[in-house]
């Protein structure tokens, strides 16, 4: 699935009036959009190169909202209804979590007024949706090749990929799945639906031919289940760090499975300071750390054996 089709799927979620303005944006700029944002009673915006711009009726991307397209109640209703295929009640988990993965692998996030469960006081639903963010899925084929060639040149290894938020961890992890699954059997724990972007049981992103995807599962439960029923050589997890992740990942390691995980951190020192991740590093769970994002360590592949 190419980038144009992913964008087309995103555009199909918005009302004809908003689509008309968006289609007037130059082809080059439109293809580089990573988010479309709708705010009830305010304006249509798009994110390009990490910066948010107001979209005008004649298709210009502007820093001020003076000529920007107004988002109406009907525009919000249209996008929300189309994201849930006209059946909001069929997706209670997605409603409570505030996002849904849609056709093409795009993610639609939303917020409004929380409806709380009387017993648990957790969010059971959302009413009066006020903002919608359509994140356009992007695949960068080959972006993980340098890491793949260095970390896995001698065979299987365990790897943790670190960066600050929005540093490219998930994009690299997705491409690494594609490369590794050419030779190895992977279980992909896709708790938030960002790696494979499953839709109707099919991965919308190319994660390779030997990947079994646990989509929307609780991470710790999925890791244990994967080891028991899919006999993976590698388990892939995005954004580890919670204490409840620790025991399941240790269970996988003790079962002879390699790990490839990501974590929010800008350096190895930051990784070690995270209680759960630090314990895994101390127990030699990982052979390498790849540091992405920004800063002095950006782009480095660290061998833990050389640090010991």
Name its key features:
alpha/beta, 7-stranded antiparallel β-sheet, 7-stranded mixed β-sheet, 308 residues, 27% strand
| Lateral strand order in the biggest sheet | 4-3-2-1-7-6-5
Annotation, overall tally of beta strands: 16
**What is the CA-CA span between the terminal residues?**
43 Å
Radius of gyration: 21 Å
Unreliable runs: none
pLDDT average, as an integer?
A: 90
Helix content: 25-40%
Structural class: alpha/beta
H/E topology pattern? HHHEEEEHHEEEHEHEEEEHEHEHHEEH
DSSP summary: helix tally: 12
**Global morphology:** globular
Describe the oligomeric state of these chains in a short phrase.
Answer: single chain
How much of the sequence lies in strands comes to 25-35%
Main beta sheet: 7 strands, antiparallel
Describe this structure in words.
The structure is a single chain. The protein has 308 residues and is of the alpha/beta class. The protein is built from 12 helices and 16 strands. Helix 8 (219-229) packs parallel to helix 9 (243-254). It is globular and about 60 Å long. The N and C termini lie far apart (43 Å). The mean pLDDT is 90.
